[in-house]
Amino acid sequence: MYEVVTLGELLIDFVPTVSGVSLIDAPAFKKAPGGAPANVAAGLAKLGTPCAFLGKVGDDAFGEFLKETLEGVGVNTSGLVFSEKARTALAFVSLRADGEREFMFYRHPSADMLYEPHEVATDLIKNARFFHFGSISLISEPSRSATLAALQTALENDVIVSYDPNLRLALWPSPVAAKAGMLSVWDQADLIKVSEDELFFLTGTDDLDLAVERLWRKHLRLMVVTLGKQGCLYYTHHFKGEVPGFAVKSVDTTGAGDGFVAGLINGLLKHPRAWADETELRAVCRFANAVGALTTTQRGAIPALPTQQQVDAFLELI
Ligand code: ADP
User: Fold this and answer.
1) In percent, how much of the chain has pLDDT > 70?
2) pLDDT attached to residue 133
3) Does the CB atom of residue 267 touch ligand 1 within 6 A?
4) Domain count, the chain
5) Does residue 98 carry a pLDDT above 90?
6) Is any atom of ligand 1 closer than 6 Å to the C-beta of 292?
7) How far is ligand 1, taken at its centre, from the CA of residue 284, in Å?
8) Nearest CA, atom 5, ligand 1
């Protein structure tokens, strides 16, 4: 049995071999495993939580590389399927000198977009304690129906639903579609993690309390807003507050949010009282901040995600 099942995109990020250049100027690219829900699975496995990933890659060398990468960190991939109709998705990603991230996607379509409802390993979801997913697999059919089928399985089996709306504007047909699509499953989640930028995009206000109030739903038990190096805010039905982040030497923030989610879910599994006990929740958020911070201290997402021992050692030194 796997305590957490994550579902969604698994792809190759191609990152320039030198930093601070545009995609036009990049001399060469290095391949790195990517995809937010897959990063969360890897983060959980590294923290010692039994975890499975569900999704679809191409029946090609990159798909095989991604499967091996997830298995290498201990993620179960029995629910990862291979497409003969489309290639593994590629994203060329560059952090330009002005700090702006530049993306170029190869998804016309890519294998993850062709994930079908009948391919979802529902048995894994039924037996899990958490189901985590994002919005990218909701963008087009048939992966949207596959995601909704998985979500339905989780809801019918009292599996806790965790959702990361994860804004990737370039992948949606329009900003209006992005907003509607990201919000389309909002009512069904127990736990939502958003960033400040996403809250602003979804509500049009930079007053974070007001934005959370507008996006609060009856079913929701916990919303966490990540604030980059400043840490995070938490909101429940009964209390809200802020937990400061950690000052670290950041070299690459890729995957920080996914590491944070892994830390959060890991903490909630170990301390289920944190849903209702503010002191425990603050400790869980502190742990998640530590995972997020450590993820920024090395290049790439999966290689940088820390183990439980690394987080413990880091927190002991603070
Ligand atoms: P996302 O990657 O989704 O945009 P954030 O950048 O807000 O999310 O990062 C998620 C979490 O990772 C933060 O809440 C924080 O705990 C940690 N984190 C991110 N960037 C840094 C940083 N530069 N220094 C320390 N911690 C960071």
Assistant:
1) 100
2) 99
3) no
4) 1
5) no
6) yes
7) 15
8) 228
Residues shown for the chain? 318
**Protein residue closest via CA to atom 26 of ligand 1:** 293
> DSSP characters for 123-155?
HHHHT-SEEEEESGGGSSTTHHHHHHHHHHHHH
Structure tokens at 134: 């994002």
Q: Which residue has the tokens 């958490």?
A: 130
How far, in Å, CA of 33 to CA of 78, rounded? 18
Distance 58 CA to ligand 1 centre (A): 31
What crossing angle do the helices spanning 61-72 and 36-46 adopt, rounded to 10°? 30
Average pLDDT, the chain: 97
Cα-to-centroid distance, 207 and ligand 1 (Å) = 19
Determine the Cα–Cα distance for residues 146 and 87; give it in Å rounded to an integer. 18
Q: What is the CATH number of the domain that holds 219?
A: 3.40.1190.20
Measured from the Cα of 245, ligand 1's closest atom is 16
Tell me which residue of 131, 186, 168 sits closest to 35, measured CA to CA.
168
Q: pLDDT tens-digit profile of 264-281?
A: 999 999 999 999 999 999
Ligand 1, closest atom to CA 232?
A: 14
Q: For residue 305, which phi and psi values (nearest 5 degrees)?
A: -65, 130
- Determine the distance separating the centroid of ligand 1 and the alpha carbon of 257, expressed in angstroms: 6
Indicate if ligand 1 lies below 6 Å from the C-beta of 289: yes
Residue 302 has pLDDT above 90, yes or no: yes
pLDDT tens-digit series, residues 196-226: 999 999 999 999 999 999 999 999 999 999 9
Of 238, 300, 258, 287, whose CA–CA distance to 133 is shortest?
258
Check pocket membership of 260 for ligand 1, CB cut-off 6 A.
yes
What 8-state DSSP symbol labels residue 72?
H
Q: What range defines the domain where residue 175 resides?
A: 4-317
Decide: 69 in ligand 1 pocket, CB within 6 A: no
